[in-house]
């Protein structure tokens, strides 16, 4: 497993009217195989996980992936840390499924024929090979999410960060995507509102109002989160970050 060390003295964004804090000072070491992140809408979950591959950089402090500084060597880190967004439409930019996966492989597989064959192999691993030449716009929600995962995983990252990957899915596709995620041989950082999914992780972080307010084994962290929500506390409230 990779060792991710986050020592951010805060993340702020400029005004107007004034500079705004979206993540409080945070220090973490993440080495577990399956790490869940839960919290209310606007709590800062997405800001936190986007620090891990440089989509967000801390105002002060730094993030390291096995001693590699994410801010200074962002391209190298992003080759090792894949990121999947809530809405796969944000990632699917090519007309067909196979072309979208080929796009992910363009830097590592130069020969066109070889690249297409490799893309088909990736699609096959996700049960999508029969849809290779189908428009991405003709896919179901679950198929689009699987295709987005396939595109990210085609580059064989060591770490996969997924930001609410099942939020837009029905029950069947939620189960399909969840089964795929937990069967992967990569380190997984999973942001989710689905507490059943979070419970399958070894460690769960609870984020509220831009701060990590609980951090520990899944059962204990989820219990603390639920208790706070039921009490109307900050873990259930929206904060200043996403």
UniProtKB/TrEMBL annotation:
This is ABC transporter ATP-binding protein. The keyword Zinc-finger does not apply. Residues 4-234 form the ABC transporter domain. One of its GO terms (cellular component) is ATP-binding cassette (ABC) transporter complex. The lineage of its organism: Bacteria, Bacillati, Actinomycetota, Actinomycetes, Propionibacteriales. GO terms for molecular function: ATP binding; ATP hydrolysis activity; ATPase-coupled transmembrane transporter activity. It comes from Nocardioides zeae. InterPro entries: AAA+_ATPase, ABC_transporter-like_ATP-bd, ABC_transporter-like_CS, ABC_transpr_CbiO/EcfA_su, ECF_ABC_transporter_ATP-bd, P-loop_NTPase. Transmembrane segments: none annotated. It comes from the Bacteria. Belongs to the ABC transporter superfamily. Keywords: ATP-binding, Nucleotide-binding, Transport.
